[in-house]
Amino acid sequence: MSQEKHMESRIKYLFFPKSVAVIGASRSPGKIGHEILRNIVEYGFKGRVYPVNPRADKILELKCYKSILEVPDEVDLAVISIPAKFVPAVLEECGKKGVKAAAIISSGFKEVGNVELEERIVEIARKYGIRFIGPNIFGVYSAPSKLNATFGPTEVLAGKIAFITQSGALGIALMGWTIFAGIGLSAVVSLGNKADVDEADLLKYFVNDEHTKVVLIYMEGLNNGRRFMEAAMHCSLKKPIIVIKAGRSERGARAVASHTGSLAGSDVFYDVAFKQCGVLRALNVEEAFDWARAFTELPEPKGDNVVIITNGGGIGVMATDACSDYGLNLMELPRDLIEEFKKCMPPFGSPKNPVDLTGQAAYDEYSRALKVAFSDDRIHSIILLFCQTAVVDPPKLSEVISDIVREYKHCKPIVACYIGGEECQKAMRILEQNGIPAYPTPERAVSSLAAIYRWAKWKKKMLKKLKGK
Amino acid sequence: MSQEKHMESRIKYLFFPKSVAVIGASRSPGKIGHEILRNIVEYGFKGRVYPVNPRADKILELKCYKSILEVPDEVDLAVISIPAKFVPAVLEECGKKGVKAAAIISSGFKEVGNVELEERIVEIARKYGIRFIGPNIFGVYSAPSKLNATFGPTEVLAGKIAFITQSGALGIALMGWTIFAGIGLSAVVSLGNKADVDEADLLKYFVNDEHTKVVLIYMEGLNNGRRFMEAAMHCSLKKPIIVIKAGRSERGARAVASHTGSLAGSDVFYDVAFKQCGVLRALNVEEAFDWARAFTELPEPKGDNVVIITNGGGIGVMATDACSDYGLNLMELPRDLIEEFKKCMPPFGSPKNPVDLTGQAAYDEYSRALKVAFSDDRIHSIILLFCQTAVVDPPKLSEVISDIVREYKHCKPIVACYIGGEECQKAMRILEQNGIPAYPTPERAVSSLAAIYRWAKWKKKMLKKLKGK
């Protein structure tokens, strides 16, 4: 293995360590060195855990070591949460111990002007072949190994979205939000100062990580645009990348400079670069996670023809407008399909696209229309809309819809939007549990389906280009 | 009083009837004529209620009448839910009875091609001076008189937003959603075919309705653009109007035609017309209600200077970008204010705008920064951001913030965004209960504040123009 490959291969120890040392583990609840250890233990990490603290014998029932050198076992990952000035010496010990990867939580480096101190830890890490994230981070989470080495929330839901964040506070807050919103994550990486591991390294890793279906990045600035683009291009051909690039505006770029010290750079440059390498740019976190949820569940569409099925004309019109805004192709239904859809609705329904089953529609009407849409090969994607009415129990409708989507083996992308009260919110969760992304507005459903189309089209074009070479 | 004024004055009986007759009241739960009566009774209407049904003696414990003519009392409002063909005769009876306003729920008129039948009921209503909404509607709701004459949800929350909708299914579904989202309404009007009462009539009414602070309209098309513009211009000078105009796209306009039969018309025309008369155009329902919530709570800003207060750099950058997108002026803080804000944060915080209190900030830091922002006259509006951290209990933060806003008598517009888990959602509700609109993303908070600025600026310009005449 080349040195480069060797260094790349060590990234995986951030996510799949057999053993973790928490250097700076603390007995005091509320302290970061305590919270991280507790999260690792409580979340149920599958490997071995070694707290390191020269002034403690036991923390959280675990034997504590004075130094990492005393740990009577190999250590794959070191989580370091000690004052900045002690980090070089500790990292030196990690190197001697043969540690493969580290998460340097400590702050007090480049972000406060201590450039030299940061350079020293990079040197030490290079010398020993340690790959590290940070410094100035909240940690790392990995769903498949049940590792929550962060001082963020404990109850993170396992899923298929890898979330990389340059902002710490926002990252932790969003971890909490994903729990509330029922969104699952395969990994969370806090990047902080990016002294060693950066977005490009992680893309190279996640492209081959079987637990990750989509990568979502909150980014303020890149140190090496070319490296990122190469990694992103490579990754995008296999898995979608969604980026929220903050500091778009002139004033925002100044705010970035005083936040992470990154150069936000020309926004036009980022825009062009992202488009070139297939990166999907989201304008805010809501949009980013909306898209990510769609990517984790839905197959690629086999063609451009989209059909809207609704029980409300108004919501159908709004979805139609959104399709136009986002460049989706609402199919002009051929006569035979119009006849088929006509059979699913009362006489005053509209069998054109949007297919309006009317407010009288219940389970049977939705079932039949969905079956038409799934079974006909000329229809490639489905937008399913529902306005709460007295004739339908929304959770039951979700069960009915889920059964049909399962019957047709999730063979076409389908996104849903329910508008209504509490019961509709529950019902949307049921859809999501059954692999059907659901959204509170038609626009957000359409935007998510459109993201899938955008990625699929980029990929097709790019593969053609690569073949041509 | 002129005939026109007289007809206008009758609109109020839709919202403040002393007595209501439900013609077509039914004993069978699930039937529209039953559900409307039940909603009127259960929601606690303050006036008298008379069910009318020739084949029943009592419905829901209320004495039932064979015809409205038999009701031994004046009837202000008739809610009519009977087959279309019987509506003319019944309306004739209403006229004889001296009914002042009607809600014609029944469908089967112009929307299915029965133009003549619709024209007949218009004639009858004109003859007797009855003003009516519909036909083809779900009813009318009025918070102050506790009248829920709809077959929508019962538990509607009283508030200050008047909601007018051309789409029935969407309207009912959104009523349900407002309950879930904790949004209060002063009135809901289903417009349906708009054979008599239309948006212009309602704007003329709501402009003087003390219970309404903002009017929100879901619109597919206008029959009389000039009338609407006149009424909107007049209303906008006093109260903001938010419109979701569906059928923006060519395809959407076609969907509108097969839904309500309205001519969606040139979207550019609507856009120009709206701008001219101060109407704020929202692109979707989420945005519309976001803005409406801000308008119901916040005062008008006294100037352009906006300050962002945050505990997270990333969320601050996103809000900064959004301010730029929405044309808000992030104040360049003068030296003395920078010094003031510096006192509210640790040394590594950023006292520039966005004012970044850092992730260590708790109640005290937020309090002090908020006090600076409220007490200095050079600052006109506040965007308050919070990323959930371990050092703050979000509901408690909301209490602290609410106390300060109250102390300063809500004298400046303030919008908030919390990002985090369940506790943050609860905490945002607390803010809202205290008159501080809160949003799940910084962009939505900024967009709502920007709507207030847009309206205030239009008004200022228009008043100047009117004075000049």
Describe this structure in words.
The structure is a homodimer of 469-residue chains. In chain A, 58% of the residues are buried. In chain A, the strands form four sheets. A seven-stranded mixed sheet of chain A has the order 9-8-11-10-12-13-14, sandwiched between helices. In chain A, strands 15, 16, 17, 18, 19 and 20 form a six-stranded parallel sheet that branches. In chain A, helix 4 runs parallel beside helix 5, helix 11 (285-297) packs across helix 17 and helix 15 (394-407) packs parallel to helix 16 (422-433). The first copy, chain A, has helices spanning 3-9, 12-15, 32-43, 87-97, 115-128, 168-181, 199-206, 225-236, 250-259, 267-276, 285-297, 313-325, 335-342, 363-375, 394-407, 422-433, 442-468; strands at residues 19-23, 48-52, 58-59, 62-63, 77-80, 101-104, 131-133, 139-142, 147-150, 158-165, 185-190, 214-219, 241-245, 280-282, 305-310, 329-330, 355-356, 381-387, 414-419, 438-439. Chain A has a domain at 299-456: Succinyl-CoA synthetase domains (Rossmann fold), CATH 3.40.50.261. Chain A has 469 residues and is of the alpha/beta class. Chain A is elongated, with a radius of gyration of 25 Å. The interface between A and B is large, with 75 and 75 residues.
CATH architecture type of the domain at 299-456 in chain A: 3-Layer(aba) Sandwich
Across the major sheet of chain A, the strand order is 9-8-11-10-12-13-14
* Number of discrete helical segments of chain A: 17
Output the CATH topology of the domain at 299-456 in chain A. Answer: Rossmann fold
Oligomerization status of the protein chains: homodimer
CATH structural class of the domain at 299-456 in chain A: Alpha Beta
Q: Biggest β-sheet of chain A, characterized?
A: 7 strands, mixed
Q: Structural class, judged by helices and strands of chain A? A: alpha/beta
Largest interface: A-B, 75 and 75 residues
Shape of chain A, please? elongated
CATH superfamily of the domain at 299-456 in chain A: Succinyl-CoA synthetase domains
Mean pLDDT of chain A: 96
Radius of gyration of chain A: 25 Å
**What is the beta-strand fraction of chain A?**
15-25%
Percent in helix of chain A? 40-55%
